[in-house]
Write a structure and sequence with these properties.
- There is one protein chain.
- The protein is α+β, with helices and mostly antiparallel strands and 246 residues long.
- It has one domain.
- Helix content is 36%, strand content 32%.
- A 9-stranded antiparallel β-sheet has the order 2-3-4-5-1-6-9-8-7, sandwiched between helices.
Length: 246
């Protein structure tokens, strides 16, 4: 079962004059709407923005409220099953908070809404993921690369496109390496985290997004649910493909 180590979400909109006119109330909502949700709330790096942060060994979260964007991330260093992400207590509380901020900032239309998951997965049956993926490249191309540049030590596939429902995507996957998790979590792994994650074979970076949509009838959770379902379905399908092609 694929496990998410990081969820990133972002809502982009035209300048929110309601936010800029009532920054004090927006700050109060960010701090107090969900009691005890943040360990720290402070000015953000972008002018007239605020950021809330909390972290523990098991979980970290962040939200940035800006004049033209609301975005944030959630980390689970040990991984959380993709189907449980939106049902986690951390996300359910975030959903309430984002809904209150959207209402306060009078956000109705989004220029872009995106949700991005970074996941790890174990091949079943276990195999050398790097060798498996390298073998999927034509022998001629492998030979040219290795003769002209050098031995292939790591690689990844990248796919970009758009579905019939106008949902854009960018999917990247390849063999799991410790550096993938460290770049994703933006810090060095502890010894225990590295040990837990080393049991995985694959690393997935899946970005799903929509442009120019009405958000008046949505919450972050309601909008993200169908996207996480697509992500989960894609990860399950990849395992089935691996079994068929083995």
């Amino acid at each position: 079962m694929a496990r998410v180590i990081r969820l990133f979400w972002r809502l982009d909109y035209e300048p929110s004059y309601a936010f800029m006119d009532r920054r004090g109330t927006a700050l109060q909502i960010l701090k107090d709407h969900v009691e005890g949700y943040w360990q720290q709330v402070a000015d953000g790096t972008i002018q007239t923005s605020f950021v809330g942060k909390s972290s523990s060994p098991e979980h970290a979260r962040q939200l940035s409220l800006e004049p033209t964007s609301m975005n944030g991330s959630m980390d689970w260093p040990a991984g959380l099953e993709v189907g449980r992400v939106l049902e986690s207590p951390e996300f359910r509380k975030l959903d309430r908070l984002v809904k209150a901020l959207i209402d306060h900032c009078e956000i109705r239309l989004l220029k872009r809404a995106g949700v991005r998951t970074f996941s790890v997965e174990q091949l079943s049956p276990r195999a050398d993921a790097r060798e498996t993926i390298v073998a999927s490249i034509s022998s001629g191309m492998r030979r040219v690369i290795e003769e002209k540049i050098g031995k292939i030590n790591d690689l990844a596939y990248v796919f970009e496109g758009k579905g019939d429902d106008d949902l854009g995507y960018r999917v990247q996957f390849g063999p799991y390496e410790k550096k993938n998790a460290e770049m994703t979590l933006q810090r060095q792994l502890t010894e225990e985290e590295a040990k837990v994650l080393s049991g995985n074979d694959l690393f997935f970076d899946i970005d799903l997004f929509e442009n120019n949509i009405s958000f008046a009838e949505h919450s972050l959770g309601r909008w993200a649910r169908t996207k996480l379902e697509k992500t989960s379905d894609l990860l399950r399908s990849y395992q089935q493909f691996q079994k068929l092609s083995a």
